[in-house]
Design goal:
Helices cover 6% and strands 48% of the residues. With 568 residues, it is mainly beta. It has five domains: 132 residues, Quinohemoprotein amine dehydrogenase alpha subunit, domain 2 (Lipocalin, Beta Barrel), CATH 2.40.128.120; 95 residues, Lipocalin (Beta Barrel); 93 residues, Porin, CATH 2.40.160.90; 142 residues, Sandwich (Immunoglobulin-like), CATH 2.60.40.680; 66 residues, Dockerin domain (Type 1 dockerin domain). Strands 3-4-5-6-7-8-9-10 form an eight-stranded antiparallel beta barrel. It has an eight-stranded antiparallel β-barrel with strand order 11-12-13-14-15-16-17-18.
Length: 568
C-alpha cells in the first residue's frame, strides 16, 4: 500500500541474500543500481527534517515509486522518482497530502553511490519556490512484505467492474488489466471521471498486493490501494485528488473492448495513397505490419486503449521513422487518425476492414481546412454552422446510393439540422431524400458513375439552446442504405452546442459564468426544498447519480477552494 509497507518478491529476497553472502554489491545490475529498500532522508535547512521513505524499483518500469513521510508534512500523496542507470543521477518528486501544509510539493536532485547504500544532493520546496538546500539519504533496511504468500500467484489479466464507495460520492468503472510478469497496466471508463489510463505502481503476484494510479481528463487522479486474494477479485481503498476517499471492490465482468486484430485497408486522404495494415493486438499491446506502396513498408509497435479505442504505434516505413495514431468509431469498424513523420509531415488517415473500401469511403468534416478528421464543431445558441459530408474515395461499383443519419442523445434533442441539403448539394450527390423522425434526421443520395472525390453535400446546423453538457456530445453516424453495397464509414466530427459567452462550467448552478460558493449554496437550498429549481440544473449533477444534492455541493466547494482541478 502507498501509506504502509511496500512489497518485495521472494525471488528478490533470495537474490539479495546471495549477493550479501558472496560479498558483491547487490545494487549494480544490468539496468543500473537498485534502490529498493527502507531509507532515512535528512533534509537540511533552517529547521532540518528527518524523513522516512520506502523505495521500490519494479523491474522494467520507470519512474520508480517512493513513499515518504516527514514530521509536519504528513504522508506523501503522489510521488515518483528516476535514477539514471549509467550516471546514478537521482531525481524525486513528492506531493504531500493536504492540509499539513496545503499542497506541499518537494523535489530532490542528487546522485546515488555506486553501492546503492547512500544518496546526496539538494532539495527544494517547489510549491513555495524556496532556495535549494542539501539532503542526504541512507539505506536502513529491506522492504519485507507483511502479507503471506498466496497458494497460487494471481493473474489479473482480463476485464473488470470496479465499485467505489465513499463518504462524499460513489462511482464505478469498467476496466481492463494486462499482466506481463511483474508489470501490470490497464485502462478504464468511469462514471464520474470518464476515460482513464491505469498505471500500476506496485504489484506482487505472490501476495496479491497492488497500488494503481488512474489518470483522466482535466487532471483527474485516483489512487487505489488493494489486495487480490485470488485471480477473480480485488478489495481495497481509494483516494482521489482533493482528499476524497473510500473503499472499492472489483470483480471480473464482461467489458466491451475494441479489437484491431486483422487486416485493414487505409487511405491517406491528402495524397490518395493506399496502405495495407495488419494489426495484431494483445489486449493493451498493438503490433502492425504496414505497406504503403511507394512510401515503403515496415513493422510498427505500440499500445492501444481497448476501452476508448485510441492507439499509437511507431516504426520504420522504408527508411523513415513513422508513427500512426488514431481512434476507432463506437462500433470498432473504422479508424480515423494520421500517419506522421515526426513533426515534419503528416497525412490524414482513414482505415476500414479489408475489402470495405471497395464500396467507397465517406467522412464527416466541419472544418475541412484543418489537419485531421476529428474536429469539434462548436456552435453557439442562435448560431448556424456548416457540416460537410465528404466522399473521400468513390465506390468501385457505381452508381450507388448511400445514406447519412444524424443522431444525438436525448439530452441534445434541441440540436437539429435546419436547411434542406438539396439547396447545398454538389453534382456528386443527386436524387436526395430527407426524412426526420424521433430525433433522427436521415439523408440519402445517389452517387453516380464517374464521380470524383470531394464534398457530397452540406448541412446547416442550428443550435436552438445550450446543450453542451460534458461528457455527453453528439456524433454523426454514416450508415448504408439497407440492401445496398456498404461503404466504409469514417465518423469524424462531434457537434456540441455552446451557450453564448460566458461559458457554462459544470457546477454553475445560477448560469452566471462563474463557479463560486453561491452555486454550492443554491444546490443545498434545492435539496432542502427552499427553492424549486436551478437556472442550470442540468450541469450540476456532477456525480451523475441522477440527483442534485449535498455531494454535488461538496464537489463545487472543492473546486472553488482549488483542491480539485478546474471543472470542464
Amino acid at each position: 500500500m502507498r501509506y504502509i509497507a511496500v512489497f518485495l518478491s521472494v525471488a528478490s529476497l533470495c537474490a539479495i541474500s546471495v549477493l550479501l553472502l558472496t560479498g558483491e554489491s547487490r545494487a549494480r545490475g544490468l539496468e543500473g543500481i537498485d534502490l529498493t529498500g527502507v531509507w532515512s532522508f535528512e533534509l537540511g535547512g533552517d529547521e532540518p527534517l528527518s524523513c522516512s521513505a520506502e523505495i521500490e524499483q519494479t523491474p522494467s518500469r520507470e519512474p520508480f515509486d517512493i513513499v515518504m513521510e516527514c514530521p509536519g508534512f504528513g504522508a506523501s500523496f503522489s510521488s515518483s522518482g528516476r535514477v539514471d542507470a549509467e550516471t546514478n543521477v537521482f531525481q524525486v518528486w513528492v506531493q504531500f497530502n493536504p492540509p499539513t501544509p496545503p499542497g506541499l510539493h518537494i523535489q530532490l536532485d542528487g546522485r546515488a553511490a555506486d553501492d546503492g547504500e547512500s544518496i546526496a544532493g539538494e532539495w527544494s520546496d517547489v510549491s513555495g519556490k524556496t532556495e535549494r538546500r542539501p539532503f542526504t539519504a541512507t539505506r536502513t533496511g529491506d522492504i519485507v512484505s507483511p502479507l503471506p504468500t498466496l497458494p497460487t500467484p494471481v493473474d489479473l489479466t482480463g476485464t473488470w467492474h470496479i465499485d467505489l464507495t465513499g463518504d462524499t460520492f460513489d462511482f464505478n468503472c469498467d476496466a481492463v488489466l494486462q499482466q506481463k510478469g511483474p508489470v501490470l497496466d490497464g485502462a478504464a471508463s468511469c462514471s464520474v471521471f470518464g476515460w482513464m489510463d491505469i498505471a500500476v505502481q506496485r504489484f506482487d503476484a505472490t501476495t496479491g498486493a497492488l497500488t494503481m494510479d488512474a489518470y483522466g481528463w482535466s487532471a483527474n487522479f485516483v489512487n487505489l490501494e488493494g489486495m487480490a486474494p485470488d485471480s477473480d477479485s480485488i478489495v481495497g481503498t481509494w483516494l482521489a485528488i482533493g482528499g476524497y476517499s473510500g473503499e472499492f471492490t472489483a470483480e471480473r465482468a464482461p467489458v466491451e473492448l475494441h479489437d484491431f486484430t486483422g487486416d485493414w485497408d487505409a487511405l491517406l486522404v491528402d495524397s490518395g495513397e493506399r496502405c495495407a495494415i495488419s494489426f495484431v493486438q494483445d489486449i493493451l499491446l498493438l503490433d502492425a505490419s504496414v505497406d504503403c506502396g511507394a512510401l515503403g513498408a515496415g513493422e510498427f509497435a505500440g499500445s492501444i486503449d481497448p476501452i476508448e479505442g485510441s492507439f499509437g504505434v511507431e516504426g520504420l516505413l522504408g527508411d523513415l521513422e513513422m508513427s500512426i495514431s488514431g481512434r476507432s468509431d463506437v462500433d470498432g469498424d473504422s479508424i480515423v487518425g494520421q500517419l506522421s513523420q515526426g513533426f515534419s509531415q503528416s497525412w490524414k488517415l482513414v482505415a476500414a476492414p479489408a475489402g470495405r473500401m471497395e464500396h467507397g469511403v465517406l467522412a464527416v468534416d466541419c472544418n475541412p481546412e484543418r489537419e485531421g478528421l476529428w474536429n469539434e464543431c462548436f456552435g453557439e445558441v442562435d448560431e448556424e454552422y456548416k457540416i460537410v459530408i465528404e466522399l473521400l474515395l468513390p465506390p468501385a461499383e457505381l452508381p450507388a446510393r448511400v445514406e447519412f443519419a444524424l443522431e444525438y442523445a436525448n439530452d441534445l434533442a434541441a440540436y437539429h439540422p435546419a436547411a434542406d441539403p438539396r439547396d447545398e448539394a454538389t453534382d456528386r450527390c443527386t436524387d436526395i431524400v430527407r426524412t426526420v423522425s424521433d430525433g433522427r434526421a436521415t439523408f440519402s443520395c445517389l452517387v453516380s458513375a464517374g464521380v470524383q472525390s470531394g464534398p457530397l453535400l452540406t448541412l446547416t446546423a442550428s443550435c436552438l439552446r445550450d446543450v453542451r453538457v460534458a461528457p455527453w456530445v453528439s456524433f454523426l453516424h454514416l450508415r448504408p442504405v439497407a440492401g445496398l453495397p456498404e461503404p466504409a464509414l469514417a465518423d469524424g466530427a462531434f457537434l456540441p452546442c455552446d451557450a453564448p459567452r460566458p461559458r457554462r462550467y459544470i457546477g454553475d448552478a445560477n448560469c452566471d459564468g462563474e463557479l463560486t460558493s453561491i452555486d454550492a449554496a443554491l444546490v443545498l437550498q434545492l435539496e432542502a426544498d427552499l427553492i424549486d429549481e436551478l437556472p442550470c440544473r442540468t450541469i450540476v449533477d456532477i456525480t451523475q447519480d441522477g440527483n442534485v444534492d449535498s455531494r454535488d455541493a461538496a464537489l463545487i466547494l472543492q473546486w472553488v477552494a482549488g483542491l480539485l482541478a478546474p471543472p470542464p
